[in-house]
Amino acid sequence: MGHGHGHGTAADAVSASGRYRRRMVGAFVILFAFFVLEAVVGFTSSSLALLSDAGHMLTDVLGVGMALAAITAAQRPTSGKRTFGLYRVEVLAALANAMLLFGVAGYIVYEAVDRLRQPPEVAGLPMILTAATGLVANLAVFGLLRSGADESLNVRGAYLEVLADTVGSVGVLFGGLLTWAFGWYLADPIVAVAVGLFVLPRTFKLARQALRILVQQAPDRVDVTELRDELAKLPSVTEVHDLHVWTLTSGMEVASAHLTTGADADHGGVLVAAQRLLSERYRIDHATLQVEPAECARRCQALTW
């Protein structure tokens, strides 16, 4: 029998996490300062749109804070019972961010519907100035998080929140201009509803991605049936079973499989060929493979799960 695994992806992920952490510290400081500003002005000016933007800014603050905590936890070395480390904490943080966004969007839409019937008087100029300042803050944070959003689900969660809040700031700015120039107070709840509805589809996608990882579903880019067939075509391999492919955290796909061979097979050669196939064709660098004769495969078939 033979076992094999490849390394490299985990180390790359840890290195990337260090880069994300520095950028996210800066993002956290900027977001917290402007959340306080928007909340204070929103309450004093009676602007639901501004409070909606402040609510999204709060989720940004909490989201980036959780993402920072998750990255810090994930960098801790494996030990004892944590044989996979704490990489999954990043996925849990992304799911928590999505739940926060669902809650804030739902509350703002609920409040806005009531205001559509009887819109209160809103101070337009403070709304404009604060929204413009918030937009600058969001754009700065947007630039800090953009590069990591495609590589880390955790960073992507914070990035999507900032993206939604950037669009929200533009909407609030536009609504403030209408309120200030024409006294059209309905613009405030309409903008608030638009901001809430804008964020929901993106939040659903983020939650879905996090849940797919947590239930250990195979990555979208990997056709498991095709992978099984490709492994079975390797020289000396007669059958493939107990094949599992899952994602540990963003950018870290993992696989395990049992490869049944003939009695005279070169187990080392089979192992190397399987590792090369997984790495080069499927970009899976961490795989645990068991190469076994037919009598061992029969025992595996007797297992109930």
Automatic annotation (TrEMBL):
Domain Cation efflux protein cytoplasmic: 219-293
Protein's cellular compartments: Membrane
Superkingdom of source: Bacteria
Ion transport listed as a keyword: yes
Domain Cation efflux protein transmembrane: 27-215
Pfam family, one: Cation_efflux
Gene3D superfamilies: Cation efflux protein transmembrane domain (1.20.1510.10)
InterPro entries on file: Cation_efflux, Cation_efflux_CTD, Cation_efflux_CTD_sf, Cation_efflux_TM, Cation_efflux_TMD_sf, CDF/SLC30A
Protein name listed in UniProt: Cation diffusion facilitator family transporter
Originating species: Saccharopolyspora rosea
